[in-house]
Each structure stands twice: as C-alpha cells, then as structure tokens.
Write a structure and sequence with these properties.
The chain has helices at about 15-25, 30-40, 80-95, 105-110, 145-155, 160-170, 200-210, 225-230; strands spanning about 5-10, 40-45, 50-60, 65-70, 95-100, 115-125, 140, 170-175, 180-185, 190-195, 215-220, 235-245, 255-260. It is of the alpha+beta class and about 270 residues long. The protein is globular and about 60 Å long.
Length: about 270
Amino acid sequence: MVGVQIRRLTPADVPACQELSADRRWLREDRRWALLIDVAEVYGIDAPDGGLAGAVTLTRYDTHAAIGMMLVAARYERQGLGRALMSHAMAAAGGPVCLRATDNGRPLYERLGFVADGSSVTYLGTLAGDRPDLPPTRPAGPADLPEILRLDADAFGADRSRLLRRVAGFGRLRLAAGGYGASWRNGSYRLLGPVVAEDVATAIALCTDLASDGPIRLDIASTQPEFEDWAAGRLTRRERVTLMSANGTAPGDVKRLFTPFSVATD
C-alpha cells in the first residue's frame, strides 16, 4: 500500500477489528477489542477496499509497555504494514516494551530489536472442579479491591489498576492467602487472568474456583513448569508463543505471576 496512514481506533471500530481477527483465523474476541480500545491505545490502517488492513495495540504502564494483537489482513501481507504498525507502537511507547510472538511474527520483531525472554503456551478446555487439599479461596467484593491492587502491583512491578478496576466491573475476582485471581468472559470462553499467587497450589485453587461455567483459557509462561504440568493433564494444549522484549525488560516477580491479564496486555 502506498501512503500508509495510521490512526487511533475508537469504539466504532470494534466490528472491523473483529473482522480482521476472523480474516487471520483468530477468535473474534468482542470483549477484548472493546476493552483494549477503552483502556489502551489501538492503532489501525484502513483498507482501500473497506475495513482494516492492519491493527496493533499498545498498553502503557508506569514502567514499560506491552504490544499485542498485531494483525495484518491476509490480502495485504508483505507490503510493509506490519513493520509500519510496529514501528509506530514502539515510538509511541518510548521505552521498554514486551510482546508475545508467533513463529510468523518473530522474524519481524527480531529485526526491530526484540529478544526472546522465554515462551508461553495456551490451554483451552473445561475444568472438572475437583479441588481436594487445595487452599481456600473466596469471592472478592469492592472492599477487597485495594488489597488486590496491592498484591498485583507488588508481583507485576507496575501499576495496572486501570485494567483491574475495569475487569472488576464485568468479571470475577477471588482472593486467597497471598494471592488473587480474575476471570472474564471473552467470546466462547472464560479467560483466567491475571492469577497472582505465592505458590502453585494457591494458583490452582484460584483457577479451579474461577472456572465454574464452561470452557476456559489459560496462558502459562515457561517460568511456571509445575503449573503447566497441572494444566496439561486437564486441558488441551494449543499454540506456543515466544515472550520477547526490546529496550529493556519488564519488571515483576515471575514466580508469582501465573497467568497474564491477557496475551495483548501481558
């Protein structure tokens, strides 16, 4: 495409974002696109024949930023749109940035200076609800939000209270000793994340108690092998992606971060 123009997307662009996802055989993810346009920065390139030719998201924190949902429509591949969107997002971030790369996207990210920090695997399925000998958890209410924000900032290493306040309005939150978990409906499945815990047993208890109504999605980093072993015995393994960063690494205690908020926001 000649004369590429990148613009900030608005709530009116959610259907076009969903069509772009479907074009690349991704889930349409109505809730995630709407949330990202609300709390992050979503940039897109309009297609001459209608809809979007490409899109990317940038979620800012006080210490770093996360890039996600990097998509180019199949009919506009290999025309430099991915590089243009990534360069725009990186310039807007102006500092350390992280992302999750598919095998197709990784070569571009490496050319832009990203390096691999590990990997992450997606698991889908239904949990049976069996929880013998697991620590107790309880539903969290509005009065518990300050404690959840404290636990999260301490483990994540940055303030993501805006995201968590939003998910508290439409998702579920549970508390345990030294940890918490969130879940929210995104299309046909319930996404479990973030999950922050002091140990694997607490993370498993939070996930089990949050997953009470149908299919779920878990994204688990390679830093949590025991947690992944538990998921692998109960859920279906899907794609593996590479965790990457540029201009420095994100802070946080990886031993306490069991699942991300989402793969777009990390």
